[in-house]
Structures are given as C-alpha cells and as structure tokens.
Amino acid sequence: MLEAILLSIVTASTPLLLAASGELVTERAGVLNLGVEGMMIIGAACGFGGAWLTGSTMVGALCGIAAGMALAALFAAMTIGLAVNQVAAGLALTILGTGLAGLIGLGFVGERITAAPHLAIPGLTDLPMVGKLVFGQDPLVYVSLGLIAAIPFVLARTRAGLVLRAAGDNAAAAHALGYDVAKIRTLAVLFGGGCAGLAGAYLPLAYTPFFAPGMTAGRGWIALALVVFASWRPARLMAGAYLFGAVSILQLHAQAFGIGLPSQLMSALPYLATVIVLVLISRVRRGGSVAPAALGTAFVPDR
Amino acid sequence: MNTPSDQSRPPDAAAAPPGEVPLLQGIGLTKRYGGFVANDAIDIAIAPGQAHALLGENGAGKSTLVKILNGLIQPDDGEMRWRGEAFTPNGPAAAHARGIGLVSQHFALFDNLTVAENVALGQIGGESLKTLSARLAQISERYGLPLDPKREVWRLSVGERQRIEIVRALMQEPHCLMLDEPTAVLTPAEAERLFEVLQRLHADGRALLYISHKLEEVKQLCDTATILRAGRVVATCDPRTETAASLARLMVGADVAAPKPQPGHAIGAPRLSVSDLSLTPDDPHGTTLRRITCDVRAGEIVGIAGVAGNGQDELFAALSGEQLVDDARSISIDGRPAGAFSITARRKLGAAFVPEQRLGHATVPGMRLSDNALLTSHAEGGVVRHGFVDRAALLDLVDRVTAAFDVRKPGRDPEAARLSGGNLQKFIIGREILRQPKLLVVNQPSWGLDAGAAAAIRQALIDLAAGGAAVLVISQDLDELLEIADRVAVMFHGRLSPLVAARETSREQLGLLMGGSGWPQQGARDAVPA
C-alpha cells in the first residue's frame, strides 16, 4: 500500500518537475514564457501520436520534445526576434497549443498505448520497499532527476551557465561585453520548450495510457508558479514539485477513506500546500534573491 | 542642430602625428538619429600610448562616438582604421578582439553575480576560472585595485563597482582603454586613487581615451584633446598648454558665466519651517533623521551640505511628502502644518520638488517630456480639464520650458531618456520653475553636469529666489553652495547643524562639520528620541 502510494507520487510529480526545470532555465536567461501549458499539451498530443504509430515510448518522448521545441521556436521568433511582449506572446502560445493539440488528437481519441516500460535490474528492483521506488521507475523519471541535478551544476559552475545568467541579469551589459544575447535566450527558450514537451508527453506515455484534450489540467501553470515560489532555485523547485505531487496523491487516498471534507476542498489542497510552503521558504531566505533582474524585458541592441 | 555634414573637408584632416600610424582612427564618422545628428563627420586619431581626452558638453556626442569606436553601434557614414587597416566592428566582440577596452559611465555589471563571475564574463574564450582568478589577483595587485572576488556586485559601493569594470577591461590587456567619465560618480578620495591608476596605465604604454568634465584632471593626464560641440569636432589641441578656462570656452563656444547674484531683494517671512523633525526611514539601510530644525525664508537660498548618505535623501523624502512624518507640525509650508500632506497637497500649497535621480525619480525615462510635465503639473489647472488631459497645453508647456531654459533635445517632444543629463536637468528644473513655486526643494541640482549646464541651473535658482521664492538646495558640492546660498548648514549622521550665513563661514569650517568634528553633544546621539 505505502509502496504504491510512493510510486504514484513519483509519477504525479515527474511532469511538473520536467516542465518547471525547463522554465527555470528559460527564466534565468531573462525570458518569461507563459506558454508552458500550451507546450505541454502539444507535447502530450505528439508524444502519444508518436508512440501510438510506432509502438515505441522512446519515439513518443522524442516527438513530444520536438513538438514543445517547435512551439517554443515560434515564441522565440516573436519575443526575441520581433521583441513582442513576452506575457502576451506566452498566453497566445497556450491558446494555440491547446487548439493544435485538440486537432492533432482527433485522430486517436479512444486509442490506447502500452505504458512506458519500467526499469528492471534483477536483484535490486526486487528489494523490499525501496526496490521499485529507486530501481524500478520508468526512464523519464531518471531523466527528470538527472536534469534537476545537472541544472544547478551547469548554472553555477560552467561558462555556459554563467553567460546564461548574465543574459538574464543585464542583457545590455552582456551585449556590451560581446555576447549574443538573442542566441543565448533563443537556446534557453528552446530548452524550456523541449522540457515542457517532454513533460506533456510523459502524461500519455507513463501516467494514463491514452490521450485526452485538456489532459495537462493546468500542470503548466503550476510549473510556472513553482519556478517563482522556488525563487529560481533548482533544489527548492524539486521540493515544490514533489510536495505538489505528494499532496495531490494523498488527498485522493484521503477522499477514498471518506474524510468528511468536501472533495472540492481536498482537490484544492495540493495548490494550497505548495504555495504556502514555498512562500514560507522564500520568506526565510537570506541574502539577495536570484530573481533574474532582466526577466520579461525584451532586449534590442542599439543600431 | 540639423546642419548637413561638411563634405568639403578632406578626409585626411584627422591629425595624426607625422610619421606615426595612429592606433585607432575615425574618419568622417557620422551618426544620425532621425533628423538629429549626434556625430557629424568626426575625425579622431589616437596614437599608440597616447592619453587622449575627449571633451564636450552633455549632449555634444561623446558617448555616441565612444559607442561607435567600440562597435556597439554602427556609424551611418565614415570609416575607422586600426593600425592603419580598415576596421569595421560589427559588434563589441570585434572591438575587444583588437584590444579596445571600455569602462562605461553606466556600469555594465551584473548585480546578482559575484565579482569573479563579472570579470570572467569579460573574457571571451576558454580560460579556466582558476588561471583567471590568479590573473585577477595579479592585476588587482599591480594597479592597486583591491577586490574581493567572492562578493556579489549589489553589495558593493560605486567605487568598488567601477574597480570591477576597470579590472575586467585590463584583463584583456587592451592596447586602448576608453573611460567614459570615470570620476563623475566617485568621492574625491576614490577619484584621487583612480587617477593614480590611470597614470600607471599610461606609463605602461597603453593608449587612453579619457572622457571627463574635470578639466584639471585632463590637463594633468592627457597630451591631446579632441573637443566636440553639437556633434562636431571644434578643436584638437594639447590640453597642457591650455587653461581650464580656454578649454571650457572651446567646449561651450562662449565664456562660461559665473552665476550673477541678484542684488537688493527683500528677505521675507519663512515659507518652509522644519522644527524637531525626527524620522525613521522606510529603507532599512537609510539614515534616521534626528531633531532637524531649520527654516527657509522667502527670497533666500538655503544650502544643505554633507557627504552622501548622511540623511539628505531621507530629509528630501520628508520635505516632499514621499514619506509622511508622525508629527504633522514638524514641517510647515507657509505656516500650515504639512507633515501629513501628500506630495500633491504640498504642491497645491505652492511647493515644488526636484529629486536627485533625473531618470526614474524626477522623470519616467520611457515617457515623453509632455507626459513627464503632466506628472508634476496635474494638480493645478491649465493642463487637465474635467479629467481630460489637454495635449496642446502640455506641448505648449514643453515649448515654454525649452525656450526659457535652452533645453536641447531631439525633436519637439522626445522621451525623457533621450535627453542628455544636463538638458534633462534643465527641463526638470524649468518644469518646476514655470509653475512659479513659492518654495523649491532641490536635491543635488548639478550632479554630473558640465560647467555650462551647471551654471545655467544655478542662475535659474538664484533668479527664482530673487523673485520671492524660498529655495532649499541639498548638495554635496561645497563650491556650489557657497556660490549661490545665502545661509548654509551641514548634515551629518542624520543631524543638521545650525544655519549660518554663507558669507561668514568657509570651506574649511564646513568641511570639518562634514567630517564629523565640531558637533555639540558628541556621543549623545542616542539620547535623542527617535
């Protein structure tokens, strides 16, 4: 029972973690992409389509990534190339993604695919309690954990990460030092799009083995909120994602047990708990915020 | 301003010393913004190892020229040469690669990154952070520019921030280092130290392009000066053989007139009275005001001196109404307790306020001048009718300020950010003076302005007082205060010394008070109720 609950928590948290990780990188480069929900749902549609046509989870995941990146490329062309307002472009992206995904999904409504295979290491996976939890997840869980471990390292320790943070902190200064701000930001937006697409694809590939329009159910917005409430710090982001996943699974079980609270209130619990905890964390932080100073501002060099 | 470029000038007019190829040469460089010609066929030649000054008033085109030479913007016309070869940088990286370093006026720093990271970002290429840190330490040591590599920039003082920029530029081992008004933002002691660094750099054989308003510095450091006026080169000379006055004349095109006092006007009743004003600032890093008492009478200018950060900004906030005070009677305007009044209510009593920060506090950078004029004049009639803004009246107001205070700007109604500092300040002061205030409170009126603009601002304040207004000037510039003020006082640690007649005091006496000596009840500060 406990093992089943823990396993479902991991599955519920992974898409949030994937999408939020990508958005964190995008925002650290100074670009606010509110289109996460749209990139996720298009990733879900294309991810399901890819897996359904080929029977391969791997192809499905790649299709999801490609779809998210394609939508992100459109966003980059608008906000970086044409310096369109990022908030408006991001909202438009969500609406576009939702519509497109419904269109793509028309062809495979009611179809099912086999769920992503889980890791099986003889001996280790059979260990009691921790076996399935640590060594028996689907591959995308490990990808999400690898990402969230790699991001702080890359941001803090590598030149690429330093340049990315510079573009997010003071784009004009980065330009004056000879960096191609547009290129850096475009790459960050594409990375965010790929992550969101993969997060979306995770839903039909590993969570529920079919596609339904609207199956992202606001997870893209939660991912956006997680980035802000985690003060752009990867460790807090992971804590927030897993907290949200845990509360959303636990409240389901609590409802099943028949706790005398209205189900609407219970369904709101994950949102409440995540916001409250992350707000409390961000209140006790010390020193300067790592909020990217140039977040949401378009940069056009003088000519 | 819209003079067509002078095509009859031969392209070889850039005066290179005979027999020597200039390190960096600009020939006929022209840059237009709409109809505004920021740089008009500029010729400049910087010889290897030369300390070259670039002089000119605010808005003369110095910063535009520096941006062109650094590849930050591309000229519309003209060419550049580096060691005699064609040089057309398509971006700043190309200029860095040749060995051109820039220390800009508005620092190109990343506040959330550490000193070491900021320096590392200046080095394009694969140098490891370890060797980079070693070189950083070595350059800090060699030029006497101490830096703590692990600190984040937002924790540092202005002087320290500038050191980062200089060290970052030096890490590239530049052949030519350009400095855009490096001493303008520094305290005198910091400026002195920077000056020694620059002399050492010059002795190392690096070419310098030095932009400054401080003509004495230029005479001491530089052997050649190019002087710009209204986007054109008006002279190339040896500053060592010129006097500061003759250089200023070349920059302005006329003698810089010292402000003339207006004799024989009456001093009237107090318009502003501050009594026992104590205030805890909103900003946790601010200075607490302690029992400040002073009055400003109609027809006089009162000056408040002091080193920055001794409570001047808090005093300005209390007087203007940006922060309300607990005891409304501690500030009265024309005898009415005003301490609890909003800024607009104080304006309706006839007060006007000019804060220190021109962009972002006195004006909204991205808004047009007409809209910025509306921001302080909306309370009185004339520009707003039944809740609707009268655009024609606002544009007329902009035109009147422009004419009365000689504001030079691109177009009739540009965004505030497009004016040079001096012209924007003239506009801001003019905007308030045309409202015919009975009381004007102004913080650092001529900070960072060239001699011509500063003189114009001071004259405007003198004339305003002569017309019967009370003027309170907060300034770090003692010479300015002694020139225009009737009475002066000094702020130190949130306290204000008694007002004394400017004629009966001296720089030395005020300087001692600014440094903290000569205060009564030293150490009894904490006894003052907050």
Helix percent band of chain B: 25-40%
Task: Work out the radius of gyration of chain B.
Answer: 25 Å
Q: What are the segments of chain B in which pLDDT stays under 50 over at least 5 consecutive residues?
A: 1-17, 522-530
Query: Number of DSSP strands of chain A?
Result: 0
Compute the number of helices of chain B.
Answer: 16
Structural account:
Chain A: This is ABC transporter permease. Chain A: Pfam families: BPD_transp_2. Chain A: One of its GO terms (cellular component) is plasma membrane. Chain A: Keywords: Cell membrane, Membrane, Transmembrane, Transmembrane helix. Chain A: InterPro entries: ABC_transp_permease. The complex is a heterodimer of chains A (303) and B (530). Chain A starts with a helix and ends in a 20-residue tail after the last helix. Chain A has 303 residues and is an all-alpha fold. Helices cover 71% and strands 0% of the residues of chain A. The mean pLDDT of chain A is 89. Chain A has a domain at 2-112 and 138-216. Chain A is globular and about 65 Å long. Chain B is globular and about 70 Å long. In chain B, strand 21 and strand 22 form a beta hairpin. Residues 1-17 and 522-530 of chain B have low confidence and may be disordered. Chain B has helices spanning 62-69, 92-98, 115-121, 129-143, 158-171, 188-203, 215-221, 244-252, 312-320, 343-348, 369-377, 391-405, 421-433, 451-466, 478-484, 507-515; strands at 24-33, 36-46, 51-56, 77-82, 85-86, 100-103, 176-180, 207-211, 224-229, 232-237, 270-279, 289-297, 301-305, 331-333, 336-337, 351-354, 384-385, 388-389, 439-443, 470-474, 487-492, 495-496, 500-501. Chain B contains 16 helices and 23 strands. In chain B, the strands form five sheets. In chain B, strands 13, 16, 19, 20, 21, 22 and 23 form a seven-stranded mixed sheet that branches. Chain B has a six-stranded mixed sheet with strand order 6-7-8-3-9-10, sandwiched between helices. By secondary structure, chain B is of the alpha/beta class. In chain B, helix 11 packs across helix 12 (391-405) and helix 12 (391-405) packs across helix 13 (421-433). Chain B folds into three domains: 11-252, 3-Layer(aba) Sandwich (Rossmann fold); 268-350 and 439-450 and 465-518, Rossmann fold (3-Layer(aba) Sandwich); 361-436, no CATH class. The chains are: A mainly alpha (303), B alpha/beta (530). Chains A and B meet through helix 7 and helix 8 of A and helix 2 and helix 3 of B.
